[in-house]
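Postdoc handover notes: sequence design on the structure in folder B. Input tokens:
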């Protein structure tokens, strides 16, 4: 990671690709959970390798991926060292990976580039849903996702079309387990809290959850957002997790099984 200076922090806050305004971001930042504050400070002062973004973009162009947005680029310098360390501790074994909210598959393509031939992937996304996700743009997103995934080197890929609040209980009932989970689905507090609670049980001890958009304290449709759900989840179950890092994302490593 390059030097995590306040200059980099301010530059990321004003990223034109982020729909939230500067005032909203600063408000969220000012209300950071005190339990997370030391880890946020430590992460901001750490080194970040911003060259990784350019390297992945070059790989994407060479591979022929079809991406229409670059949202994941904001997180790559931050999350790359965490993922490298996580993968390094597991030797050459496969990693059972769950991603909630895939869209076009850009983050999945990044994961494949960073950890080639390592991942057994399960992904949950509704894409276009006539009743609950009826935006016309999603008609094109799902086929683009599948074309992108055909270019990856995953050991296996299972795509579950649906909403995580419905799919995760089925997966838990089936006894599925994962080593690494990336949560980037709904931004409403209710849905995020449901995702986190089920993912906490689906995650193996020693595994890691990476939750995106922690600073979103108001969802796009109004009401409490990702931040409130994360804070409530950690308040209840923090004893079972170690805080690995905090920034735009919160990374939690499971250290003990949760009674249920």
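Designed sequence:
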């Amino acid at each position: 990671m390059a030097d995590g200076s306040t200059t980099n922090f301010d530059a990321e806050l004003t990223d034109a690709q982020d729909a939230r305004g500067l005032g909203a971001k600063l408000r969220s930042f000012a209300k950071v959970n005190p339990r997370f504050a030391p880890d946020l400070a430590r992460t901001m002062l750490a080194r970040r390798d911003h060259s990784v973004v350019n390297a992945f973009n070059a790989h994407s162009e060479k591979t022929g991926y079809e991406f229409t947005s670059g949202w994941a680029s904001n997180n790559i310098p931050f999350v790359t060292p965490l993922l490298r360390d996580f993968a390094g501790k597991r030797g050459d074994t496969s990693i059972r990976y769950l991603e909630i909210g895939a869209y076009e598959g850009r983050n999945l393509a990044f994961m494949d580039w960073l950890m080639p031939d390592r991942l057994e992937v399960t992904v949950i996304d509704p894409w276009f849903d006539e009743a609950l996700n009826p935006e016309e743009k999603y008609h094109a997103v799902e086929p683009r996702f599948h074309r992108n995934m055909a270019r990856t080197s995953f050991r296996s890929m299972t795509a579950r079309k649906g909403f995580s609040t419905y799919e995760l209980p089925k997966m838990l009932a089936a006894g599925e387990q994962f080593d690494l989970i990336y949560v980037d689905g709904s931004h409403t507090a209710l849905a995020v809290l449901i995702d986190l609670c089920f993912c906490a049980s689906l995650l193996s001890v020693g595994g890691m959850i990476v939750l995106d958009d922690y600073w979103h304290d108001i969802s796009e449709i109004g009401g409490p957002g990702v931040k409130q759900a994360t804070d409530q989840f950690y308040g209840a179950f923090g004893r079972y997790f170690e805080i690995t890092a905090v920034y735009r994302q919160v990374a939690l490593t499971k250290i003990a099984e949760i009674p249920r």
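Context for whoever picks this up: DSSP finds ten helices and nine strands in the chain. Don't rerun without checking with the PI first.
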